[in-house]
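Workshop exercise sheet. Pairs work together: one partner reads the sequence aloud, the other fills in the structure field after running the prediction. Swap roles for the next sheet.
Pair: D.N. / O.F.
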Amino acid sequence: MPSIQEELIKTIRDVPDFPKPGILFKDITPILADAKLSVRVSEALAEQWEALQLTSVIGIESRGFIFGMQLAQTLGVAFIPVRKVGKLPYKTIKHSYDLEYGSAEIEMHMDAVKPGDKVLIHDDLLATGGTAAAAAELVKKSGGEVGGFSFLIELAFLKGIEKLKPYHHDVRRLVSF
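Structure field:
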């Protein structure tokens, strides 16, 4: 059986010029179309983190929700959605940041992370690290501790990992391009 890395490299689809000219988008929807591969991805992600004493997993909108929720369930911890501003119904805390093709602001419910919580931040892709770093700022603002960063894909040439090191040294991914 091929390794999970080999399967992901074979399955992830490149979409040129999306969402803007010059961007090569890494599309994970072919993974989602393959139920067996999706299960393997979920299992591989959970294996990376099962030894830690985490209290929750943050999933970053929207593709971070897909495997983030499964990761939280497998680890037996809470799932926390981090969304674009205006999408959550309760009182929120916010953080603005720059990303590879513009700027954005994200938020989470103000009671999602409690002081002392150890939170894993998950997203499908690590590019420049701006969105994951913004999620880490939300954790810090709430009095929680970042327990690490989890990604399906890292675009290593963008060096996003450097932006995450001030929050936690443990940054894991299933595949790098």
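Discussion prompt: Residues 128 and 160 are 4 Å apart (CA to CA). What would you look at next?
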